[in-house]
Design a protein that fits this description.
- With 250 residues, the protein is mostly helical.
- It has one domain: Ferritin (Up-down Bundle).
- A two-stranded antiparallel ribbon has the order 1-2. A two-stranded parallel sheet has the order 3-4.
- The longest helix is centred in the last third of the chain and has 31 residues.
Length: 250
């Protein structure tokens, strides 16, 4: 696999993007705004569109990278590809409906770079599905409420529909990882190494609170950790009470 080195960590090289999109490499190079302010509507939907595109690409790349995976798991990845493509179309539709257009703001392929740098399927599922997409369930709950409070019930419904699909994407990864760990305890070491890698990348990409992005917004003002754990949907996705308690403590 082709790799790139950004901020001192190795990531998988960017997937292809059509000429409308400007791809950047650091959080400081994004035009991210606090929710509800300025150009937040267009920028957040543009960024969300790229997130869904990355999720599609990660699931598709896993099908290509691990052809010997169990058939049931490959079918789950294929279904996820369909879900993520539908999500991308829905977000693109909302972006245009709100007066924006794809490629209006720069994007960063962080999720792809991290998940697809991992060389085993348990590691990739633990990072992408069980960690990143589980975090998306928390964020989508907040976005649903933000759009509804902002007078955009149609967009709120889109967020709620995407959230319902994410539950299944996280659930199949949770179930498969648990089965693998029972059959092969060494998988725990693969997952632990993958989570440590994710932690190192996250630390490298976490800017100082006073750093500003290209919109002139201090990154400390974006309140990235300010949303609640989506306890109900995480339970549906196979998280146990110990998992949820640990998330609440963090």
């Amino acid at each position: 696999m082709e790799m790139k080195r950004i901020l001192g960590v190795d990531l998988r090289s960017d997937p292809a993007r059509d000429p409308r999109f400007v791809v950047v490499q650091r959080p400081q190079d994004l035009y991210e705004y606090p929710p509800g302010s300025g150009s937040w509507i267009h920028e957040s939907l543009n960024r969300h569109l790229n997130t869904e595109m990355q999720s599609l690409e990660i699931a598709a790349q896993s099908l290509a990278d691990f052809p010997e995976a169990p058939w049931e798991l490959r079918m789950q990845h294929a279904r996820q590809c369909w879900d993520e493509s539908r999500h991308a179309r829905l977000i693109a539709r909302e972006l245009v409906r709100h007066g924006g257009e794809p490629g209006q703001f720069p994007v960063i392929n962080y999720d792809w770079g991290v998940a697809c740098a991992l060389e085993t399927l348990p590691a990739r599922l633990a990072v992408q599905n069980r960690t990143v997409e589980a975090g998306e369930m928390d964020l989508l709950q907040q976005l649903r409420d933000t759009w509804k409070a902002g007078g955009s019930p149609e967009t709120a419904e889109v967020m709620d529909g995407i959230l319902a699909d994410e539950v299944q994407h996280v659930r199949f990864a949770n179930e498969w990882i648990k089965r693998e760990v029972r059959q092969n305890p060494r998988v725990v070491m693969e997952i632990a190494a993958a989570i440590e890698y994710l932690r190192n990348v996250t630390n490298a990409f976490t800017p100082a609170p006073d750093d500003e992005n290209r919109a002139g917004v201090k990154l400390g003002d974006l309140d990235r950790e300010g949303f609640d754990v989506n306890t109900e949907d995480r339970r549906l996705a196979g998280f146990g009470e110990e998992d949820l308690a640990a998330l609440r403590r963090r």
